[in-house]
Write a structure and sequence with these properties.
Strand order of the largest sheet: 2-1-5-6-11-12-4-3
Number of strands: 14
Shape: elongated
Number of domains: 2
Structural class: alpha+beta
Distance between the termini: 25 Å
Strand content: 15-25%
Largest sheet: 8 strands, mixed
């Protein structure tokens, strides 16, 4: 379905959010005039981007490069509390002066039907407070110190959430918003279990992987991506050992006694192997490793 683009007759609410630990809070801001018109224009630009050719299905390990956007199911927005807070924007309390002193996580336009709105989300704090020694502006034709909040809105949105799906225009900011918050990182055990499946592992491997998934975003994306791979259900210790040897890896170190050992020193090699990031040069016959994927497209 076409993405709902706000026009002067479409209901539209501006929401700001912030977090305290794993809790999400939101407020709505009253807007009108040039500000409302400008935000409508930025939303229209974002919607136009999300309708370009070349969008791809979201995968944590794929790089964005020249891809205009990624398409994802709602289930990919793992910080459900953030999404729910934004969705209920018109029911949020109106922001007051104290609220505007907070460091906001994002702002969003909530557009259209309140039961199934379209959300335009930007990971940025629109409020610039007078934190520097002197912020000056022209007030009544006189340069004066400004102490009240100033608002600054970017000309872009990072994510569009429609009732049907999500368009991640900026993949990195989509992940920072919905996949890297404290509430989400608490699910690291689920990602690790999806990766491990029925594979034999050493006793300390699961805890090590969970710790790494929480603190290392590069490895976290690999772990999440590997857990999605259908071939993981077909792997056997014999096949793993063979592939390790094919790529010049020490199978006795990475898989002692037939068990994968995800020790700190082994994690990088094992994740590269399991994610099919290792390959051999066609002409040099040298071994290489890819840092992220961009699948070939016809």
């Amino acid at each position: 379905m076409p993405i709902t683009i706000p026009d002067p007759t479409t209901p539209m609410t501006l929401v700001v959010t912030w977090t305290t630990g794993a809790n999400v809070h939101g407020r709505r801001l009253m807007i009108g005039g040039d500000v409302a018109e400008g935000l409508r224009g930025f939303a229209a630009q974002a919607a136009a981007t999300a309708e370009l050719e070349g969008g791809r299905t979201y995968d944590p390990d794929e790089s964005q490069d020249d891809t205009p956007y990624f398409v994802a199911d709602h289930e990919e927005a793992w910080d459900v509390a953030l999404l729910d807070t934004i969705r209920h924007g018109d029911g949020l309390p109106e922001a007051n002066g104290d609220d505007l002193k907070r460091a906001f996580t994002c702002y969003a336009l909530v557009v259209g039907d309140s039961e199934a709105p379209t959300l335009y989300i930007r990971k940025a704090n629109p409020v610039a407070l007078a934190r520097k020694p002197l912020i000056a502006g022209l007030v009544d034709n006189t340069i004066k110190k400004i102490t009240s909040p100033l608002f600054s809105f970017d000309s872009k949105f990072d994510v569009i959430v429609t009732p049907e799906q999500i368009y991640a225009i900026d993949k990195s900011n989509f992940e920072r918003l919905f996949k890297e918050t404290e509430a989400v990182l608490a699910r690291a055990g689920e990602w690790v279990d999806a990766l491990i499946g029925d594979l034999p592992i050493t006793g300390s491997s699961r805890d090590t992987l969970i710790d790494i998934a929480r603190r290392n975003s590069f490895h976290r994306k690999k772990i999440q991506s590997i857990g999605r791979r259908a071939y993981m259900q077909k792997l056997t210790p014999a096949l793993l050992r063979t592939k390790m040897q094919d790529h010049g890896l020490d199978a006795d170190t990475l898989m002692p006694n037939g068990e994968l050992d995800f020790a700190e020193a082994n994690v990088r090699d094992l994740l590269r192997l399991l994610n099919e990031d290792l390959f051999r040069g066609d002409f040099s016959d040298e071994q290489f490793a890819a840092s992220s994927k961009q699948l070939a497209r016809s």
